[in-house]
Amino acid sequence: MSQKPTSTPENKVQFVFGKSNYQFLVISIAIVIIGFALMTGDKDIYDFRKTVLAPIVVLAGFALGFYAILKKSTPKSH
Predict the structure, then answer these.
(1) pTM
(2) Of 8, 17, 38, 58, which has the fewest CB atoms closer than 10 Å, so is most exposed?
(3) How many independent structural domains does the chain possess?
(4) Residue 40 lies in a domain
(5) How far apart are CA 19 and CA 10, in angstroms?
């Protein structure tokens, strides 16, 4: 019979990304939400805020998200 692996303190859960990666991801999601919020409204459809500023903010949020995914996390030394 095979033995079941026992849970020991040495078996820690390892996440895919580091803490800073997750922080950047949360910040990027917030920036994208702010960008989409800037696009809302029903007054003037050709307003500077809706046609220029909001898409730039959304793209900046996506760029930060890509950076957060591609950023190499630093391993903790124990």
Answers:
(1) 0.75
(2) 8
(3) 1
(4) yes
(5) 20
Q: Examine the pLDDT at 61 and tell me if it is beyond 70.
A: yes
Which position has the token pair 């910040």?
27
* Angstrom distance (rounded) from CA 59 to CA 55: 6
Compute the CA torsion angle 45, 30, 73, 12 (nearest 10 deg): -140
Could you tell me which residues come within 8 angstroms of residue 36 by beta carbon, excluding any fewer than 6 positions away? 54, 58
Cα gap 61→72, rounded to integer Å: 19
Residue 8 is classified by DSSP as -
What are the pLDDT digits (tens) for 18-54? 889 999 999 999 999 999 999 998 888 899 999 999 9
Q: Is residue 30 part of a domain?
A: yes
Tokens of 62: 């996506």
Note whether 38 and 49 are within 8 A (CB): yes
